Protein 1
Amino acid sequence: MITTANIKNGVNVDQLVETINHVQQDPSLAKFEFRAKNNWIDGGHCVTSIQDFYGVGQEHPVRKDNFTMEADHVEVLLGQDQAPNPAEIVLHALGSCLTGAMAYHAAANGIEIEGMESRLNGDVDLHGFLGLDPEVRKGFNGITVKFKVKSDASEEQLRALSQFSPVFDIITNPTPVTIEFEK
Amino acid sequence: MITTANIKNGVNVDQLVETINHVQQDPSLAKFEFRAKNNWIDGGHCVTSIQDFYGVGQEHPVRKDNFTMEADHVEVLLGQDQAPNPAEIVLHALGSCLTGAMAYHAAANGIEIEGMESRLNGDVDLHGFLGLDPEVRKGFNGITVKFKVKSDASEEQLRALSQFSPVFDIITNPTPVTIEFEK
């Protein structure tokens, strides 16, 4: 007997349903911890390594690849522009997360998506970062995401799917960050 | 006459002071817009291109490099693990931004930093993303950053420097995100 995997939008729907069933049977499987290690090079230039994580009840010490990502600043902000800057990296995380969330939740709901692309922009007033005006925030005043989605789904449906994005939640709602300094 | 650039922590302090003076003379120079273009591959696999930005009163259409970054999901979350996932990319953005902000603001304050590294972790309960419990948030419940900084500065000073980080602000405070769907 030949069986065909039930793939929609690049997502294995059978495995997705199985994952949901497992989590419903054992809620502790839903606990994940993601990790990163950042090393300063100089100025605004850094390199981050991504490797291990915890999830579905166990440690995952190795990954397919030892992922490294750099960050730097643009030259007009005194960097050497050797990599995207942290604000641009936030846009990368948000665009990827919204897109992935839509692909997964569309698959779970039987909605086919043929293509997706998005343009993101975020505006900043440097009076905040430079410490020139404490009333001006240091981060983005706002982010706009313009999606082009090739699908029969309505705009309302697509918008509902996008709301499952974890990074959309992290950015639009306050997320506590604890900073510790070790000797 | 030989002049030596005033470099501290990899930051050109003379240029930093000059930048602050320019912004104080013409506040419009402080307006920046960063941009990203995201293309879906399949499932949770995406690629982001970073190129142009607006800042110091003009468009900057080209960069040193045409930066591209990928995102994917880990295999237990039905991805192919070809790149870090969006939640890990948020940790990369935060670690890099805190570190860069500390290097820049330390330089501006005459504080020397010899080395910095940090370990970041963020915990997620998948009941949120999977839509199993509307009371559980989809993003990180919290992020912890553990810094090791080689410097004579006190912990209190380092903490104050870190608070200038734009990504720290984006994550800890609500940042409005507008999503538009175009035909």
Note: Chain B has two domains: 29-83, 85-173.
Protein 2
Amino acid sequence: MEFFKAIKKVKLSNPVMLAGWPGVGNVGKIAVEYLIQQLKAERIAMLYSPYLPHEVLTSESGEITMLSNSFYYAKANTGSKSRDIILVTGDTQPMSPEGQYTINEEIVSRFIKLFKGSEVYTFAGYNDGQSINKRRIFVAATGKDMIKSLKKDNLAFESTAASIWGSAGLVVAFAKEYGIPGACIMAETNGTEFDAEAAKRILEFIEKRIGMHINMGDMQALVKETDKFARELAEQQKPEISFPDSIVKGNSKPTYIH
Amino acid sequence: MEFFKAIKKVKLSNPVMLAGWPGVGNVGKIAVEYLIQQLKAERIAMLYSPYLPHEVLTSESGEITMLSNSFYYAKANTGSKSRDIILVTGDTQPMSPEGQYTINEEIVSRFIKLFKGSEVYTFAGYNDGQSINKRRIFVAATGKDMIKSLKKDNLAFESTAASIWGSAGLVVAFAKEYGIPGACIMAETNGTEFDAEAAKRILEFIEKRIGMHINMGDMQALVKETDKFARELAEQQKPEISFPDSIVKGNSKPTYIH
Amino acid sequence: MEFFKAIKKVKLSNPVMLAGWPGVGNVGKIAVEYLIQQLKAERIAMLYSPYLPHEVLTSESGEITMLSNSFYYAKANTGSKSRDIILVTGDTQPMSPEGQYTINEEIVSRFIKLFKGSEVYTFAGYNDGQSINKRRIFVAATGKDMIKSLKKDNLAFESTAASIWGSAGLVVAFAKEYGIPGACIMAETNGTEFDAEAAKRILEFIEKRIGMHINMGDMQALVKETDKFARELAEQQKPEISFPDSIVKGNSKPTYIH
Amino acid sequence: MEFFKAIKKVKLSNPVMLAGWPGVGNVGKIAVEYLIQQLKAERIAMLYSPYLPHEVLTSESGEITMLSNSFYYAKANTGSKSRDIILVTGDTQPMSPEGQYTINEEIVSRFIKLFKGSEVYTFAGYNDGQSINKRRIFVAATGKDMIKSLKKDNLAFESTAASIWGSAGLVVAFAKEYGIPGACIMAETNGTEFDAEAAKRILEFIEKRIGMHINMGDMQALVKETDKFARELAEQQKPEISFPDSIVKGNSKPTYIH
């Protein structure tokens, strides 16, 4: 019943997936939406699903869009050569085990079979209830080879026995089952609704890992805007799926119509 | 597992769908049921679904009916020519994302493939918690072309970034995906159980849009009756799916039997 | 995923289905279990389902049985000739709309296609919160013909606009869709856990309707036993699916093991 | 949608299944994990499912694993000859009836069709709210033959009319439907999070039944460790799926990341 909609055909060379979804601190979502803007990524496909909430988003200009996951394409300059990137994000995450399993399996298998994808990184917030002064990065990966490879890059991170909820974990788990390397990059978050600082830490990590340059100039502005927006949201008790204007265009002030 | 039941075969010429379901203020349901009566529409098909609540309705004469969505056919006089209309409504809306997705996809694809439908309008109430003195109309559509086309008709409405819950939004979203134009027409509602005033506003809008004449004579009576019924319901704490006699015949005084 | 298990092959001639499930007052369940005993019916098939609760019943002798719906066969003496009867009941009812739709559709379609069934009666309790001094019978049927036919038999009953929850209503609704006559016979119940008096009223109704003789001798004993059992249950806060010894053999004192 | 992953091919001769899952007192899980260690069993297959919770486990070394059920293989010395054993356990149990039915049916049918399995024993805790001084063993089986056969072995146990929740009951129920003998062995538990004493009682029972030798030396240490762990868990309000280090390696200190 999933409904995959190809929007633009692109020729890809072993692309890497960078993916994040709404979650704790919305860290993964902010990181990916920022990359979409900075890399001027273009949407090449959408995935609709019966497991996403039964509502549609409307833009200020009056256009309706079903909740979905989207695949974006960008080319990243990595010095001498460039790297094809598939950015993946969604409006929300399904609430049921069946929904999570089905959608995340579809995302990974489309990435591999349709886009010839060869590597997966997901972004998420991490909060174990302790102080986050150090803003550490935690990594969980498809296997020891990936952990070793990340350490070779002199990347600072820790691993821990834990449990990762939702798409950030399941997409890497499906990558493992389908035989491609992948890792879930988690930044310590304070748990506020929009933790752009944690997203920034993840972008710095992936920047080094991929060897691409990400312009961080707009990030501080984003931190300020998300802080302001988070305060406004708290006052109005708005639903979680709303997002700052600069992040998801046009869906900034959701009102629920029943 | 959906169960589509054709009742009467009709020859249709590019029909337009006008659809509404129980929801906030029951605005969409009232508008469609009123059209079914005024246009003397006849039921041509029913759609049963495993996702609708597991109960059946009984009439005073003792006949059992499964909960369903129904397709009605009517011909609207639009001056020089007439327009084929498919009215769609349901006894209730499914509670699960899977149910909403499956039923609404089926409604739109049947409308297009079986009835050769070419255009979709859904009706709903809109309540953003603010004063509704102006009784504004909000529109969300399949695309900018539809918004432009409505404006050309000198129809007064607004658009806003929001989120529409349930069938009223999803049916238009599926119309968009299947490539036919459509819009969700929302009237500001006070949120009472039966807001016939909001339904009237929607009918005035669609009357102009389709170019057909709707006799509004019985509407004031309906407003009074629904008001009375709503008060009675409130006293008896009756379930939401009950409806005034003049709207859905025979199912007026539901009692729950377990 | 449903799992139909044929136990014994029987040659049937236009059998009538008499069916009841656990529900308000357990009226339908008591009536059918009593008929199974009195008519010495034998189990000819079972229907397992992924939608029934994930537990199994154990008997005192230590045998495990999955929760199920069962089909029993009996021959009823109706004076000059005899009538083939299929008795249907279940250990419990599924909690989800999908489960109810799927199981009840399967019960009716197996009855028609496999057993050549021609008529359906379901039994249930009815409680509208008012006095039940009159212990009235309510009937909801597949159509006006059935109502008319019941009235010709001088059977005393009423009909009312209402809503019937669960299998008792859905089985008759599916019978209607599949084109065989059927009715849901409801007796006013006081809502206690086991209302054998209401079950007795239903048996008297169906006795006249089918023209068969039901020995009511054990019923008063049952009323006493169920009363005693209900009091014991209330004291021990036992789960709803438990049943008196004389009704479902061997599953009398359920203990939940997790 | 289930995803069965064969890890190692083994040649089996009428293997017996010994299985247990997290549940009351985690009795079944502890017993099976202890056997996996003592018999140096090796994992030969995994079963993923859309019905298990949407989270992944990470090890301290940073590797991700999807929640699953696993099949392990071991050879047990039973004196003159040896017996092939398939040990089955899972990280958790699905919450929905559909999930339980689907996963347990798959486990039993794989065991029979793929591994030529001929006999099934599941382990579980039993708590009827009464004193557990006697630490009795309760057995529920596929049929009277199995009960008789167990009694011939001079095994001390009781049977009772009850209801068994989840995999421990359903796996035996499916074994019955698929025509192989099986039994659910339940030990009275005090209901603490990790009741190793009850697990020990079950292992003593199955040791006699299979005629194999199980080294119980590490069990007392396990009792102490689980007691300590349970106290720590209680303090930290950790989720149920966490397990002591010596039982499931590497997933000892779960932290939830959302």
Note: Chain D has a mean pLDDT of 88.
